[in-house]
Write a structure and sequence with these properties.
With 259 residues, the protein is α/β, with parallel strands linked by helices. Helices cover 41% and strands 14% of the residues. It has ten helices and eight strands. It binds 2-phosphoglycolic acid. 2-phosphoglycolic acid binds next to β8.
């Protein structure tokens, strides 16, 4: 499976900063940008439209997938502060991150809500990047397997094998996010194998096609190690995706890593 290099900009990069990012990123990438559709970028909602316009202007719309960092399960209604899949599709979005640990931790996002969000996104033709991952306390008390599997089962509740064709799983241990303490490639590989086995039960037939990406302090220096593991199909990148040159070096070194 070809690796995916998915940027999660979180609450960073204004519309103006997004335009400047694109200018520099296109300069660095040049012709190589068009090589593959393995570059996925999820900016804040208000930077989606500027990103889509810049990609179109540079003729790169097919090379970079634009995503959102969340997606509501209803199409419209009295839900202050939320954004629906229809609204995202209209802007040119093709994937939505759901259940990021920051949403779970700071905004009370439940597994049940994550499942609704994922299925609503998929129903509108988006890919859903469903995030799971254990806390530092879970990790030190050796509860990773139990926590990750429970999140996975509940966050994929009701999902069919057909829907799972648009699914990506992101394994992001909370203790590794933004800390510089990345999980080793072998720790991540072990959890990804666990996730793959569970997907075989949950969405038989398509489990082998679902990309499982790792997130948590991934950078240009360590991406190759992840890409060399058989069950790591790319990365979800926060901090290292905010700077065009560090993101582009990461993509280059990930692309050249041999399995
Ligand atoms: P990080 O964030 O790369 O800054 O650790 C990853 C994420 O939260 O998706």
């Amino acid at each position: 499976m070809k690796p995916i290099f998915a940027a999660n900009w979180k609450m960073n990069l204004t519309a103006g900063e997004t335009r400047a990012f694109c200018q520099r990123f296109f300069e660095l990438a040049g012709e190589d940008l068009a090589a593959a559709a393995d570059i996925w970028i999820a900016p804040p909602f208000l930077s989606i439209s500027p990103l889509v316009s810049e990609l179109a202007r540079a003729g790169c719309a097919a090379s970079v997938k634009v995503g959102a960092q969340n997606c509501h399960w209803l199409q419209q209604g009295a839900h202050t502060g939320e954004v629906s899949a229809d609204m995202l599709v209209e802007q040119g979005v093709s994937f939505a991150i759901v259940g990021h640990s920051e949403r779970r931790q700071f905004y009370g996002e439940s597994n049940e809500a994550v499942a609704l969000r994922a299925r609503a996104a998929i129903a509108k033709g988006l890919s859903a990047v469903v995030c799971v991952g254990e806390s530092a306390a879970d990790y030190s008390s050796k509860r990773t397997e139990q926590v990750v599997l429970e999140q996975l089962r509940k966050s994929l509740a009701g999902i069919t094998s057909t829907e799972a064709e648009r699914l990506v799983i992101a394994y992001e241990p909370v203790w590794a996010i933004g800390t510089g303490l990345a999980a080793t490639a072998s720790i991540a590989q072990g959890v990804h194998q666990l996730i793959r086995r569970e997907l075989e039960l949950l969405v038989p037939g398509v489990a082998q096609k679902v990309p499982i990406i790792y997130g948590g302090s991934v950078n240009a220096g360590n991406i190759a190690e992840y890409c060399q593991e058989t069950e790591i199909n790319g990365a979800l990148i926060g901090g290292a995706s905010l700077d065009p040159s560090s993101y582009w070096s990461l993509i280059q070194s990930g692309r050249s890593a041999e399995k």
